[in-house]
């Protein structure tokens, strides 16, 4: 029996993963950690210059290999004020 995944397949990668994770330690003081993907810990980081894709990527870096950004919201005069640090 033919796999459903092999029917009408096209040779392109389409998709998106967006995950938000928190815990008690981070959510109480309004903190979170952000890492932009795709992941590169166990595979080489994505590089436009070696991808073979014809798509333009003006304004984007060639290599997608980002570290975590630690963020904390700080209320100030009734408005949210941001404090951000990059690791």
Automatic annotation (TrEMBL):
GO terms for biological process: lipid catabolic process. Keywords: Glycoprotein, Hydrolase, Lipid degradation, Lipid metabolism, Signal. Its EC number is 3.1.1.-. It is an enzyme of class 3 (hydrolase). GO terms for molecular function: phospholipase activity. Pfam families: Phospholip_B. Gene3D superfamilies: 3.60.60.30. Putative phospholipase. Belongs to the phospholipase B-like family. This is Phospholipase B-like. It comes from Rhipicephalus microplus (Cattle tick).
């Amino acid at each position: 029996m033919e796999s459903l995944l092999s029917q009408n397949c096209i040779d392109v990668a389409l998709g998106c993963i967006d995950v938000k994770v928190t815990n008690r330690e981070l959510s109480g003081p309004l903190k979170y950690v952000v890492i932009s993907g795709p992941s590169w810990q166990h595979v080489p980081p994505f590089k436009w210059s070696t991808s073979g894709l014809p798509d333009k990527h003006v304004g984007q870096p060639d290599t997608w290999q980002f570290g975590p950004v630690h963020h904390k919201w700080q209320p100030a005069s009734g408005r949210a004020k941001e404090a951000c640090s990059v690791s």
